[in-house]
Amino acid sequence: MQRLLSTYLFVSRKLTRELLGQIADAGFTGVEIFCSRGHFDYTSKTEAQDVGAMLDSLGLTLTSLHAPTSRDLSATRESGQPLSICEVERVRRIEAMDELKRALDVAEDLPFPRMIFHMGGTRETADPRKRDAAFSSLEHLDLLFGARRLWNLRFDSCRLVDLENQILGVERQGDLPGEMIPYVYFEYLRTNEIFRLMPIFHHNAVDILTLACLTAIVPRAFHPPDQARFSHGAEMVGLARWWRQAEQHENALGLFRQAVDRGLADDLLFRTLWDIAALEKKLGRHHAALPILTDLAASRNPWRAAAFTELAKHYEHRERNCSMALEMTRKALELEPSEALRRRAARLETRLLSRKTPRLL
Q1: How high does pLDDT run on average in the chain?
Q2: Fewest CB within 10 angstroms: 16, 128, 248, 275, which?
Q3: Is the CB of residue 5 less than 8 Å from the CB of residue 20?
Q4: Cα gap 348→305, rounded to integer Å
Q5: Is 25:61 a contact under the CB 8 Å cutoff?
Q6: H/E element holding 64?
């Protein structure tokens, strides 16, 4: 049975490595992260990447993300303007969906299998209109999720017009920019001249055509790794993470390794090597993970301390080499001191000392 914990218990505190380390030390194997900007700023790409790195290094699984329940920029509390997709008032419902989409975008850098959100609050009264409003909210969901998962590591932007240009090789000519649509629509309301809506209809028609073309491309990604039609390493990493989330670990490993062979930027390369080592270990192939962890520990990179920690575990528990385990632990402590590593070092030192102390007959 998994032991899981929601970080809502600590919503008044910033989600830090120290806090996650305390959760891991308490014996929990997975967490649900609560989206409150003062606790976890889900609008920050850097913060999402940092939290993902922390979870990986601590061996914690992100089991779910809890949708924001309010729009509050306070760093000390979770309150403020309530957000609900069941709002009867359309403007407030759209605001809630916009905030929910910001939370969903976290998946680009911090994959999660499910999002938890509440259809209403405990103080709300039953209202059939709220149920209809909830279904109406679906029209605002992101239809580019699959495309973003594949290409967000390769391109700086995964906006529809950018993917249209980069993937389909199409550049719009004479198209109404999306930010101008509200202005044109209000002009139509003011003048009641229907022809003013024609640029909006054209813009939306091109959007739908682009979505259809991208939808035809994305499923091609799900061939066996040896038949993958993607040639760019970053695309392969994006697809491998998708396979990994679906627990298709062998497919994920095959694509991760192909991506490394194709060439990756340093930051993505080190993360991918860590992912390969973690999957090999998960599959019970510790002998395959060992050389990768050794390489990660040998050079300066964000995963170096975590690699030393994994090597310490390997030498202690699999090779019964306490001297090497202690050496790896001390090197990890130099890079990222933590209470868990100090306890490991003290335990290993005690064990080595007991072996050296002669017994009295």
Answers
A1: 85
A2: 128
A3: no
A4: 18
A5: no
A6: strand 61-66
Alpha-carbon distance of 72 to 81, in angstroms, equals 7
Q: Write out the H or E segment, with its range, that includes residue 63.
A: strand 61-66
Helix (H), strand (E) at residue 71: strand 70-71
In degrees and rounded to multiples of 5, residue 237 shows phi and psi of -65, -45
C-alpha dist (Å) from residue 107 to 14, 27, 150: 20, 26, 12
> Which residue from 25, 32, 9 is spatially nearest to 58, judged by alpha carbons?
25
CB of 347 within 8 A of CB of 338? no
Are 83 and 49 in contact by the 8 Å Cβ rule? The answer is no
CB 68 within 8 A of CB 83: yes
Dist CA 155 CA 234 (whole Å): 9
| Distance from C-alpha of 67 to C-alpha of 6, rounded to nearest angstrom | 12
pTM value? 0.61
pLDDT digits (tens, 9 = 90+) for 241-256: 888 877 889 989 999 9
225 with 251: CB under 8 angstroms?
yes
Structure confidence by residue, pLDDT tens digits, 37-62: 889 999 888 899 899 889 988 989 99
In this structure, are residues 15 and 40 in contact, taking their beta carbons and an 8 Å threshold?
A: yes
Q: CA 177, CA 199: separation in Å to the nearest integer? A: 10
3-state helix/strand/coil string of 177-204? CHHHHHHHHHHHHHHCCHHHHHHHHHHH
Cβ-based burial of 20 (10 A; exposed 0-12, middle 13-18, buried ≥19): buried
Burial 78-98 (b: 16+ CB within 10 A, else e): beeebbbbbbeeeebbbbbbe
H helices within 218-337, ranges in order?
Answer: 233-245, 249-262, 266-282, 286-298, 304-317, 322-335
Handedness of CA 180, 184, 189, 195 (dihedral sign): negative
Domains recognised in the chain with CATH numbers: 1-140 (3.20.20.150), 303-361 (no CATH)
Q: Is 79 left (phi over 0), alpha (psi -120 to 50) or beta?
A: beta
